[in-house]
Amino acid sequence: MLRVFDYGALFLAAAVTVFTAVVVYTGGDAKSEVRIKGPDGSWVFPQDAAELVRVPGPLGDTVVELRDGRARVLSSPCGNQLCVSAGAIHAHGQWIACLPNQVLVSVEKKTTLGEEELDGAAW
Amino acid sequence: MTARLGKPGEPDQPRGPGDFRGREPPGGPGKTLAILGAFCLFLSTLEYAIPKPLPFMRIGLANLPLMLALDIFSPSAFALLALIKVLGQALITGTLFSYVFLFSLAGTMVSAGAMYLLRRGFGPERIGFTGIGVIGAFLSNASQLALARVFIFGEGAALLAPPFLAAGIITGLTLGLFCEAFAARSAWYRTRSKGPGAGGGVPSPGGNFPAADRPRSGTPPAVDPGPANFPGQAPNAPDGGYGGRLPNVKNRDLFRLKRRELHLRLFRNGELFIAGFIMMGAFLFNPSTVLRVPQFLLFWFFAWLTGKKNKPLITLLVILGIVLFNLLVPYGRVLAEFGSLRITQGSLLGGLRRAVTLEGLIMLSRASVRPDLRLPGPLGSLIGESLRIFEGITERRGLITRKHFIEGIDALLLELSAGQGDREGPPAGEQAAGTPQSLAVPPEGPLPGMLFLAAAAILTVFFTVLGIRGR
Known about the structure:
The complex is a heterodimer of chains A (123) and B (471).
Chain A: H1 4-25, E1 32-38, E2 41-46, E3 51-56, E4 61-67, E5 70-75, H2 82-85, E6 88-89, E7 95-98, E8 103-109
Chain B: H1 30-47, H2 64-69, H3 75-93, H4 99-122, H5 129-153, H6 157-185, H7 187-190, H8 251-266, H9 269-285, H10 289-305, H11 312-327, E1 332-338, E2 341-344, H12 345-368, H13 377-395, H14 405-417, H15 446-469
Antiparallel strand pairs in B: 1-2
Helix pairs in contact in B: 1-3, 1-13, 3-4, 3-13, 4-5, 5-6, 9-12, 9-15, 10-12, 10-15, 11-12
């Protein structure tokens, strides 16, 4: 009753479905995210987001820019401006800290358990 | 709009949509197109009665006429049939203004195009309805998933992809096997198709419905055609229609029927459609998620007024589901954390916006699109004809029983093609489809309804203006 291309169609559809399941459920395409932590809260964005985030701190607002897959501190009220001169980060594990204003920006890969890649206690 | 079947220069080939090589039905070559269109709508309503293991696992019975038409129609006629299916369903279910219509259009056109190319490219000897059904359902689900990613679930739609695609394979396989069985046993199909077994011959005994076993019209059907808000409640149905106090009818159902009667009396189709169109535009242009909520509530109230069945719990669960899916991809300020699930402001607002938009458009569509709305042009006429035949089919639905499902459908197709069993009386445009004669009351003066619609439209636009000014 089934013809040659009936089997072909079934096989093709099943193969695409299995491939999709593997990619989606095993994190074959795991994306990085940018995490921003301040004294009053935290933010999470996909790495490809385009955003300007104002993070309030004890000295004022630290402005973090996310664009073109990179994150950088655009401006900060701290005196040494080390966070601004650190430039942009994009790879998993990279981070920028503004110690005077208590702001941390990091790039991390999502884990299936949602575990933090960067230890908050160490920071 | 014309379409041809067969090659040019063949003097005896009829011209026009729905051309076929078998006996031409009374009423012209477009009649086959309208008949199959009507069956798409009928089978769609029939499918609601079939229990499903999961809500999104629809077999897609409405695609059966489309698959049968692969061997009958020219490309343009086939495309017309697909459009009739989509637009007819949108009119009957009142989803013309909603994303549901968009999803249905995308899924149907993509799968129909693929099925036609496969069947005509490989031929019926190399690919049967099974393979075609699998690919058609698979592509339909894939295209709807792509739209769902944009309009409803965001990136969280990826998690739905594998089970949704797998469901497409199962439902496509099921429909394809059913279609093979139908084509093998259908006398109607045998006389019309170019597929295997075409060209006449004596119909198999199963192809003719045994008259002795045929249920009498008026006997309650073995298969319920669907929920009460679909046309098909025939005046001669066992419960006698809507007029008067019905046995075993709860007070709330009576109240709902009275609202329906009032809605039919107050509002005319054209005004409803125009007001709905204006409100849809205002709704979609509203940039404020928060201000879309009162608009959504207004549409919900509007839909409640129509007297159609309304299930608030289902609506709220759908909204909750969409918001949860959007929360799976965190975006913005973290509001709360529950284990690995982070509730972020951006995802929450984005999910709420998508959910309210989806449900708001569904409510608005149900309130402002009635099945007897007539679309302009030749396509509108074809859809109107299909809806009229659809009413006739639902009156004869007693022929289709669980025991003789295929034979029942075949018998109806043969009857309709022979010009029998067609519903007599005025075209559906002159009487609201699905409206029993006891409810076919002339509308009251236009003023009250128009005032109400104008007020609703102004209120909707007002919220949009507030949203724009608040940016």
